[in-house]
Write a structure and sequence with these properties.
282 residues; alpha/beta; seven-stranded mixed β-sheet; Rossmann fold; four-stranded antiparallel β-sheet; 2 domains; Spermidine Synthase, Chain: A, domain 2
């Protein structure tokens, strides 16, 4: 019997092949191609636009780090906005925080949300949390129209800064985010692969520094993403990324986590020299 594989293009010249044990769902919506399938090594996989987006085996490295680094760095995050993140993993992590009052997730493609509930319940469980609210709509428009100083943390859990996703990485969008954030507010956008796409990461750094006085970068390990090392920007209106993290707050939650911890929070901001030059424009 012939082996069926999904080829994930990391770049035009490099790809990863996933052996498919069962194809679960495939549909092209008005926004993107959506595929769910099972693999022997990484469990259920969600691919968007022909690119692996989530796998059961390594999703925690992404979702715990995009969420908990800013949530613990902020002294009291009450309202959180998630742009994208239709698989629900980032929402799941945000709703773990007991001080949260509301988490609003804005996802443009309803099919991603509904099929993640069906095929990826391990990430989509956050949709059922009583403090969560899901809006199917355009994240750009939502932020543009949002009330000033209405959120403590904004997480941009989007596709990469190509094609339509480019608009979520512009100075105009970051300026809207800055306006919507409260004093001490934090913006964390996923920021691509610094190994394969250093020019994208450098562009994000430049655009954020036009708007925010404090901009840092940190990384996490996601083996199925290009290069295995993924980058997040940390743009703040106040809090330092780790100077004021409450160790007792972290300790009260760390037993229910699989990736994030206090030591890793600090270490994630220690970048190799080559990558530091990229984000510091040296």
């Amino acid at each position: 019997m012939a082996k069926v594989v999904f080829r994930d293009p990391l770049t035009p010249y490099t790809s990863i092949e996933h052996t498919i044990s069962e194809y679960l769902f495939s549909q092209e919506t008005e926004f993107q191609q959506i595929d769910f399938f099972r693999t022997p090594e990484f469990g259920t996989v969600l691919a968007l636009g022909g690119v692996v987006n989530v796998t059961e085996r390594d999703e925690v490295g992404y979702h715990e780090m995009i969420a908990h680094v800013p949530m613990f760095a902020h002294p009291a995050p009450k309202r959180v906005l998630i742009i994208g993140g239709g698989d629900g993993g980032t929402l799941r992590e945000v709703t773990r925080h007991p001080g949260l009052e509301e988490a609003v997730l804005v996802e443009i493609d309803e099919v991603v949300v509904e099929k993640s509930k069906e095929f990826l319940p391990v990430t989509a469980c956050g949709f059922d949390h009583p403090k969560s609210r899901t809006i199917i709509g355009d994240g750009l428009a939502y932020v543009r129209d949002a009330e000033a100083a209405s959120f403590d943390v904004i997480l941009v859990d989007s596709t990469d800064p190509v094609d339509a996703g480019v608009e979520l990485f512009t100075p105009a969008f970051y300026r809207d985010c800055h306006r919507v954030l409260r004093p001490n507010g934090i913006l964390v956008p996923q920021s691509d692969s610094v190994l394969y796409y250093p020019e994208r990461v450098a562009g994000i750094a430049r655009n954020l520094r036009e708007i925010f006085a404090s901009v840092d970068f940190y990384t996490t390990h996601v083996p199925t993403y290009p290069g295995g090392l993924w980058t997040f920007a940390f743009a703040s209106k106040g809090p330092h990324p780790f100077a004021h993290v409450d160790a007792l707050r972290v300790q009260s939650m760390v037993a229910e986590l699989d990736y994030y911890n206090l030591d890793l929070h600090r270490a994630a901001f220690a970048l190799p020299t080559r990558y530091r030059r990229v984000v510091e424009q040296l």
